[in-house]
Specification:
Layout (H helix, E strand, L loop, with lengths): L21 H12 L4 H8 L3 H10 L12 H12 L4 H8 L3 H10 L8 H5 L7
Helix pairs in contact: 2-3, 4-5, 5-6
Amino acid sequence: MNVTVERRTSVSRPRANRKLERDEIEALVRRYREGATVYELAEEFGMHRQTVSAHLHREGVTLRSRVRMTPQLLARAIELYKAGWSTVQIGKELGVGTSTVGKALKRAGVQMRPAVAERAKPKRPCR
Protein backbone atom coordinates (compact mmCIF):
# COMPACT_ATOMS: atom_id res chain seq x y z
CA MET A 1 0.00 0.00 0.00
CA ASN A 2 1.54 3.29 -1.11
CA VAL A 3 0.25 6.26 0.89
CA THR A 4 1.29 9.81 0.12
CA VAL A 5 1.03 12.23 2.97
CA GLU A 6 0.54 15.87 2.10
CA ARG A 7 2.60 18.04 4.40
CA ARG A 8 0.95 21.27 5.45
CA THR A 9 2.76 24.12 7.11
CA SER A 10 1.51 27.40 8.46
CA VAL A 11 4.26 29.33 6.71
CA SER A 12 3.94 30.00 3.01
CA ARG A 13 6.91 29.35 0.79
CA PRO A 14 9.36 32.23 0.60
CA ARG A 15 9.01 34.32 -2.53
CA ALA A 16 11.92 35.06 -4.79
CA ASN A 17 13.12 38.64 -4.59
CA ARG A 18 11.59 40.72 -7.33
CA LYS A 19 13.21 43.88 -8.62
CA LEU A 20 10.66 46.66 -8.96
CA GLU A 21 10.66 48.83 -12.05
CA ARG A 22 10.94 52.60 -11.57
CA ASP A 23 7.22 53.12 -12.27
CA GLU A 24 6.33 50.46 -9.68
CA ILE A 25 8.48 52.18 -7.05
CA GLU A 26 6.78 55.49 -7.87
CA ALA A 27 3.38 53.82 -7.56
CA LEU A 28 4.39 52.28 -4.23
CA VAL A 29 5.48 55.66 -2.87
CA ARG A 30 2.35 57.37 -4.22
CA ARG A 31 0.04 54.74 -2.68
CA TYR A 32 1.82 55.05 0.68
CA ARG A 33 1.49 58.83 0.62
CA GLU A 34 -2.21 58.41 -0.22
CA GLY A 35 -2.63 56.47 3.03
CA ALA A 36 -2.06 52.80 2.18
CA THR A 37 -0.30 50.86 4.93
CA VAL A 38 2.97 49.00 4.54
CA TYR A 39 1.01 45.76 5.04
CA GLU A 40 -1.49 46.65 2.30
CA LEU A 41 1.32 47.54 -0.08
CA ALA A 42 3.15 44.31 0.68
CA GLU A 43 0.05 42.37 -0.34
CA GLU A 44 -0.57 44.54 -3.38
CA PHE A 45 3.01 44.37 -4.69
CA GLY A 46 3.62 40.74 -3.67
CA MET A 47 6.49 41.32 -1.29
CA HIS A 48 7.32 41.32 2.40
CA ARG A 49 6.39 44.37 4.49
CA GLN A 50 10.06 44.92 5.35
CA THR A 51 10.90 45.08 1.64
CA VAL A 52 8.19 47.71 1.18
CA SER A 53 9.64 49.68 4.11
CA ALA A 54 13.12 49.42 2.60
CA HIS A 55 11.89 50.76 -0.77
CA LEU A 56 10.14 53.66 0.96
CA HIS A 57 13.22 54.41 3.05
CA ARG A 58 15.46 54.43 -0.05
CA GLU A 59 13.05 56.90 -1.66
CA GLY A 60 13.37 59.23 1.33
CA VAL A 61 9.84 58.64 2.59
CA THR A 62 9.35 59.07 6.34
CA LEU A 63 7.30 56.14 7.57
CA ARG A 64 4.19 56.83 9.61
CA SER A 65 4.08 55.44 13.09
CA ARG A 66 1.34 53.00 13.90
CA VAL A 67 -1.88 54.55 15.10
CA ARG A 68 -2.23 54.43 18.86
CA MET A 69 -5.47 54.32 20.82
CA THR A 70 -5.94 57.92 21.89
CA PRO A 71 -8.63 58.80 24.44
CA GLN A 72 -10.80 60.03 21.55
CA LEU A 73 -10.37 56.77 19.61
CA LEU A 74 -11.07 54.76 22.75
CA ALA A 75 -14.29 56.69 23.40
CA ARG A 76 -15.40 56.03 19.81
CA ALA A 77 -14.41 52.34 20.08
CA ILE A 78 -16.49 51.96 23.25
CA GLU A 79 -19.44 53.66 21.57
CA LEU A 80 -19.22 51.38 18.52
CA TYR A 81 -18.72 48.22 20.58
CA LYS A 82 -21.80 49.02 22.69
CA ALA A 83 -23.70 49.56 19.42
CA GLY A 84 -22.90 45.95 18.46
CA TRP A 85 -19.85 46.38 16.26
CA SER A 86 -17.16 43.70 16.38
CA THR A 87 -13.57 44.50 17.30
CA VAL A 88 -12.63 43.70 13.68
CA GLN A 89 -15.13 46.25 12.35
CA ILE A 90 -14.01 48.84 14.90
CA GLY A 91 -10.35 48.31 14.05
CA LYS A 92 -11.04 48.85 10.35
CA GLU A 93 -13.14 51.93 11.08
CA LEU A 94 -10.51 53.51 13.34
CA GLY A 95 -7.43 52.30 11.47
CA VAL A 96 -6.03 50.21 14.32
CA GLY A 97 -5.48 46.51 14.82
CA THR A 98 -8.18 44.22 16.15
CA SER A 99 -6.08 43.19 19.14
CA THR A 100 -5.38 46.86 19.92
CA VAL A 101 -9.13 47.49 20.05
CA GLY A 102 -9.80 44.45 22.25
CA LYS A 103 -7.01 45.26 24.69
CA ALA A 104 -8.04 48.91 24.96
CA LEU A 105 -11.69 47.98 25.59
CA LYS A 106 -10.71 45.47 28.28
CA ARG A 107 -8.38 48.00 29.97
CA ALA A 108 -11.27 50.47 29.94
CA GLY A 109 -13.41 47.93 31.82
CA VAL A 110 -15.81 47.18 28.97
CA GLN A 111 -17.62 43.85 29.42
CA MET A 112 -16.62 41.85 26.34
CA ARG A 113 -19.07 39.66 24.45
CA PRO A 114 -18.13 36.03 23.73
CA ALA A 115 -16.45 35.52 20.37
CA VAL A 116 -18.84 34.85 17.50
CA ALA A 117 -17.48 31.31 17.19
CA GLU A 118 -18.32 30.68 20.84
CA ARG A 119 -21.83 32.10 20.49
CA ALA A 120 -22.51 29.99 17.40
CA LYS A 121 -21.58 26.66 19.01
CA PRO A 122 -24.61 24.47 19.75
CA LYS A 123 -24.97 23.76 23.44
CA ARG A 124 -24.54 20.09 24.32
CA PRO A 125 -26.63 18.65 27.10
CA CYS A 126 -24.73 17.58 30.18
CA ARG A 127 -24.64 13.86 30.77
